[in-house]
Amino acid sequence: QAVRAQPDYAEAELSWGIALAVTQHLPAAVPHFERALRLVPNSLRFQLTFARALTDGGRHDDAVAHYQAALAVEPNSADAHFGLAISLREMGRLTEAQQHLATARQLGRR
User: Which of 52, 73, 88, 93 is the most buried (most CB within 10 A)?
Assistant: First the structure.
């Protein structure tokens, strides 16, 4: 409860999610990412971090939703377009993937 009272609680949840995800514990990380996003739903960084963890864990359907949420926050995010392209490609949605990859490159992603 004391942690919840802190203004940086969302950052703590995000950090726990990252720590668990990088140690291959994505199922345990997901609730931390979800709590962080409930606290700060319009954070581009939080959306992208969760999306990348989902992509790394092979959960491309879920990752797409978070890349799209990131694009709703910042439509010109090259990182969101690039990550979305990766997940769409892995799902076999090649035309959409190519469109997002082209957009990412136009926005400066190499």
Answer: 88
